[in-house]
Fold this sequence. Notes:
Elements: H1 2-20, E1 22-24, H2 26-36, H3 38-58, E2 64-73, E3 79-85, E4 91-97, E5 102-115, H4 119-186, H5 191-226, E6 234-236, H6 250-260, H7 262-282, E7 288-299, E8 308-318, H8 326-392, H9 398-432
Parallel strand pairs: 1-6
Antiparallel strand pairs: 2-5, 3-4, 5-7, 7-8
Amino acid sequence: MKFWLGLIIILFTFVLNAEERFIVTFDDAKKLLMSNNRDVLSALEKVKAAEGKLTEASSAFFPKLNLIGSYNYMTPVPKIDFSIPQSQFNSISKSIETGANNNWLFKATFTQTIFDWGRSFDNYDAASLSYDISKIELEIVKVNTLSNLVQSFYGIILAKEVLNVSERSLEIAKEHLSVAEQKLKEGAGSSYEVLRSKVHVSTLKPIVSKAKNSVEISKNFLKNILNISLDKDIEINGKLEEEYIDIPSFEEALKKAKENRLELKKLQKTKEMSEKMLNVISSYDKPSVTGVVSYSYQNPYFSQISWVDSWNAGLVLNIPLFDGFQTAGKLKQAQTEVSSVDLNIKNMESLIELEVRQAILNLNEIKERVISQKDAVVEAEEYERIAEVSFKSGVITNLEVMDAQLSLLNTKVNYFQALYDYLIAKSNYLKAIGELK
């Protein structure tokens, strides 16, 4: 009975741990990033705000309808006094009220811009371009966060690989310490070898602790990017692999970058928007025409104490004559903005060219390093194997074995680091040519 109860408790604990642990593949992390990352969510809100501004700009094309209702109590009531002559010596005084104590008014006003020198259309076009820019900015944020995800996700895998190698090296070092101590007891070894083995074990312990700490730090960084609780336990499902990509010529890569880079598209849209705003400001000192139609239902109507409805229609011509050079100042600012965007475009094109060159150079250099480190691992493993056999045969000392192990540890770490560096360089290259999706 106790056996079955214990088994149930163990199984229940295992199930709970499995539910609490969050196993993440790169594709899972990518989906979660796009739906949960704070920077992405903030950029989405900016897109909604830009959409609202576009709706606001479109309101210029529609008529405005206002309803007014009012009540006023007036006292005294205005009146006109006059005299009516009856004879040469007599007259009768009279007065006529021109209003009433209770005054009611209900009025509807309909206004429509008829002509404003194209200001409404340019405003709408500028708002539409601003909306497009906000969507491009959203994509830029997605690309940047995806680049951070690549570094974070594979950084965890690198840290785990380094931890595995470090732990395995520590296990082997402890085994050699036991062998050295045993040989010393049997009179076949020396206290120097034992002491050297202890120093080697002591050297590896902080390396293992540091590797464990690196894994946790990398996991926390990933959890922060994905906007999940730091208390949540996550497990990464992935590995560092040699996945090389074909690199075109620099000219072809640069052409792709200039066609695809979102930053360049954003600046081009910004220039168009600045030009539209320049047109808007140019219209500030131009005439505009507005149509107005109103309908009133009121009591009294002038001196008539009764409910009367009336309507009127007209045109309003507005001609700005002098605004204290305000429009001239704004025009100068807008023209400077257009020129500034032109310079930013040229600067971005130069920066893109630099990034593409650097990305290609890094890819080629790191690929060679991966291949070299892979061969070095094979050689170091063989060297370590021969050292183990030679040590067991008494041909070499424990010191030489530890040197072989340390060499293998460093070589494996360098190999995994090279694989990680290539993945990051590949991500940076794809980002540089605008193909990191």
